[in-house]
Design brief:
The protein is built from 8 helices and no strands. By secondary structure, the chain is mainly alpha-helical. The chain has 2 domains: 69 residues; 51 residues. α7 packs across α8. The longest helix has 14 residues.
């Protein structure tokens, strides 16, 4: 039995996992990152080749931190998490119109238009929402998307 001084997370693949990974590598039909991750897992297997991280990094043109990250995710989160891309926990930017603000937009759009107007325009709605301090800033396009989502394009 080998000593694993530097490795905190040791990979031991089941027969099914090993077969699945070998299928991914041999067919070559999966995306590049899946094939790379499959190769890394196969070579990291303590019951198989058990290559060092440095050897794996050299063989598959990856950084040692990538190898460690894949091993860590495999042990902590399981097989599927390594073979799929990480899902974002938060969106890249906050939504301007949440449920409450959309409701206020719809209520505003259903109200009487300003004096001298026969109906609301998207720009008028955007300006009025800013004026009423519903939002700090908003584009007329965002207002249009909010109304379109509710099938209220013609208010």
């Amino acid at each position: 039995m080998r000593k694993y001084k530097n490795k905190k997370y040791i990979i031991r693949l089941t027969t099914d996992e090993r077969k699945c990974l070998q299928d991914i590598v041999s067919k070559g039909k999966a995306s590049a990152y899946k094939i790379k991750h499959a190769n890394i897992l196969l070579k990291s297997d303590a019951d198989g080749p058990d290559w060092t991280d440095e050897k794996i990094a050299d063989a598959f043109s990856a950084h040692k931190c990538t190898i460690e990250g894949i091993r860590t995710r495999f042990v902590k989160e399981g097989f599927e998490s390594v073979m799929e891309r990480k899902k974002r926990l938060t969106p890249p930017r906050e939504r301007i119109l949440d449920g409450e603000k959309e409701a206020r937009l719809i209520a505003l759009g259903c109200s009487n238009p300003p004096k001298g107007r026969s109906r609301w325009t998207l720009q008028l709605l955007a300006d009025k929402m800013i004026e009423l301090n519903i939002v700090e800033s908003i584009s007329y396009k965002t207002v249009g998307r909010g109304l379109k989502k509710m099938n209220l394009s013609r208010i």
